[in-house]
Design goal:
This protein is α+β, with helices and mostly antiparallel strands. Among the domains are: about 110 residues, Aminotransferase class 4, branched-chain amino acid transferase, N-terminal domain (D-amino Acid Aminotransferase, Chain A, domain 1), CATH 3.30.470; about 160 residues, D-amino Acid Aminotransferase, subunit A, domain 2 (D-amino Acid Aminotransferase, Chain A, domain 2, Alpha-Beta Barrel), CATH 3.20.10.10. The strands form seven sheets. Strands 17, 18, 19, 20, 21, 22, 23, 24 and 25 form a nine-stranded mixed β-sheet that branches. The protein has a six-stranded antiparallel β-sheet with strand order 10-9-16-13-11-12. Strands 1-2 form a two-stranded antiparallel ribbon. Strand 1 and strand 2 form a beta hairpin. The termini are far apart. It binds pyridoxal-5'-phosphate. Pyridoxal-5'-phosphate binds next to helix 6 and strand 23.
Length: about 425
């Protein structure tokens, strides 16, 4: 409809429906669109190169349109709109990676990677083939004490982890062969399991040994580790008492964080209309296999051309992003939502609070509103996969001067060094 003569003028396609806007988006592909402008947030805004270049034969090869300018990349993003682009692939981190059919723009697992790298609209081609040979094809996956080849690592279709999202998980990271804050991750996993009355059939020491074994089997010193414990196979009914054998799974992978340009430029995010779980329904402190409302928030972000979404709690206060915690900085003080705002108690969040305090900054865990985010001097996110990354725009409002602020940069560097110590 965006380019359809019947689309009412001054409307835009947003969040699954047509909404009013001040300039017709068709202008984006219209010869009358002023050069060096882009369609963003319902209006034309200046930019240094016309996005039209994205589909323009004159765009230099191996460049992409990102953050208002052309940046180098290893594969030409024009492939995104090119019939030759392999099905179910997306442009991420300078290369084509596999994607969901309906999103083809970003995906990043829990804290794991995802990203669209342009303001092009996502492709919706329903396809299946991966972009490239899978570099982890030879990897081993640990399941209940055995290392399986990736293609043989399977669980039952009757597993309640699949049928109902009944289970818990963790995302960890290894730096130089050492897992960052392993004890804290294991404690959170065991606490999550306890809260859903799921008994993990191995000890923490056995889990730690199995992680080490899996990393070694895959030759990974620096990597991402996913721990999953499912309720196990049962009947089609909900009753967990009719399941047996929880499945303990360890997947290790290369760590795919945001591209370096994003760490220098900062992220643009939106506030999602999907709320974080109500703590009286399912506590966000439980890292359960059920992330559906975070996924809805992620989809909303993607549709808005952003990589992350801020989620509010049932009181309308700031909670966290879909897979990261959030910090604001106002007049030199760090502000972050407290646990009772309905957040996952992030392990990176905890480490950053310690680092900030030991660097002489005051850190307050206080209830925050969207307004506090809008008027913050700096905003950043923390998570195992992303570490520390600045947010420079939210809901079309620039944060500070629109680039990562000095305290964010300092803490980002300190955390980077600390995690690798
Ligand atoms: C909802 C949510 N919030 C925050 C985080 C960040 O937590 P951590 O720093 O422990 O990775 C995650 C990471 O998985 C998450 O899923």
């Amino acid at each position: 409809m965006l380019v359809d003569a019947e689309q009412p003028p001054n409307t835009q396609w947003f969040g699954g429906k047509l909404t009013p806007c001040s300039v017709r988006p068709a202008l984006l592909v219209d010869a009358k669109q002023p050069p060096n402008t882009q369609w963003f947030g319902g209006k034309l805004t200046p930019c240094s190169i016309s996005p039209a270049l994205l589909v323009d034969a004159k765009q230099p090869p191996n460049t992409q349109w990102f953050g208002g300018k052309l940046t180098p990349c290893s594969v030409r993003p024009a492939l995104l709109v090119d019939a030759e682009q392999p099905p179910n692939t997306q442009w991420f981190g300078g290369k084509m990676i596999q994607s969901l059919p309906q999103l083809a723009s970003l995906t990043r697992g829990d804290g794991s990677p995802e990203v669209p790298l342009s303001i092009q609209s996502p492709t919706t081609r329903p396809t299946t083939a991966p972009a490239k040979p899978d570099s982890t094809a030879g990897f081993k996956i640990w399941i209940n004490g055995t290392l399986f080849d990736k293609q043989d690592a399977k669980v039952s279709v009757y597993d309640h982890g699949l049928l109902y999202g009944d289970g818990v998980f963790e995302g960890l990271r290894s730096y130089g062969g050492k897992v960052f804050r392993l004890d804290r991750h294991l404690e959170r996993l065991w606490n999550s399991a306890k809260a859903i009355l799921l008994e993990i059939p191995i000890t923490r020491a056995e889990m730690a040994k199995a992680i080490d074994e899996t990393l070694k089997a895959n030759g990974l010193d620096d990597g991402y580790i996913r721990l999953i414990v499912t309720r196990g196979a049962g009947t089609l009914g909900l009753d967990p008492n009719r399941t047996s054998n929880p499945q303990v799974i360890i997947i290790t992978d290369y760590i795919a964080v945001y591209p370096e340009e994003l760490y220098s430029a900062g992220l643009e995010i939106i506030t999602s209309s999907s709320l974080r779980n109500h703590p009286a329904a399912l506590s966000p402190r439980i890292k359960s296999l059920n992330y559906l409302n975070n996924i809805l928030a992620k989809i909303e972000a993607t549709q808005a051309g952003c990589l992350e979404a801020l989620m509010l709690n049932h009181k309308g206060e700031v909670a966290e992003c879909t897979a990261d915690n959030i910090f604001l900085i106002k007049e030199g003080v760090l502000l972050t939502p407290p646990t009772d705002a309905g957040i996952l108690e992030g392990i990176t969040r905890e480490a950053v609070i310690e680092l900030a305090r030991s660097s002489g900054y005051e850190v307050r865990e206080v209830a925050l509103t969207r307004h506090d985010v809008y008027i913050a001097d700096e905003v950043f996110l923390t998570g195992t996969a992303v570490e520390v990354i600045a947010v420079v725009k939210i809901d079309s409002r620039k944060i500070g001067n629109g680039s990562p602020g000095p305290i964010t940069r300092e803490l980002k560097e300190k955390f980077h060094a600390f995690a690798r110590k």
